[in-house]
Write a structure and sequence with these properties.
Oligomer: single chain
CATH superfamily: PRC-barrel domain
CATH topology: SH3 type barrels
Number of helices: 1
Helix content: under 10%
Distance between the termini: 22 Å
CATH architecture: Roll
Strand content: over 45%
Largest sheet: 6 strands, mixed
Mean pLDDT: 88
């Protein structure tokens, strides 16, 4: 299955370990050969009238399943 990064950025990232939602992909780290090293997901939160963004980085190999609406990761 082929998928574009822009399509992946529209899906929610869900941890299979904790069940938490990590938001959506906001960035990708690529090595000198053009291979994907990792993804960065950000979950914007509103807490006590200030915005706090939580980021999580996960490897391409952490992706277990890419579904219609979500990406399941093993982190």
């Amino acid at each position: 299955m082929n998928i574009f990064l822009s399509e992946m950025q529209e899906k929610q990232i869900i941890s299979m370990v904790t069940g938490m939602s990590y938001g959506k992909i906001i960035d990708v780290e690529i090595d000198n050969n053009g291979s994907i090293i990792s993804f960065v997901a950000e979950n914007p939160k509103f807490f006590k009238r200030t915005f706090k963004n939580e980021e999580i980085t996960f490897k391409y190999t952490d992706i277990e399943k890419i579904g219609k609406d979500v990406i399941l990761v093993k982190v």
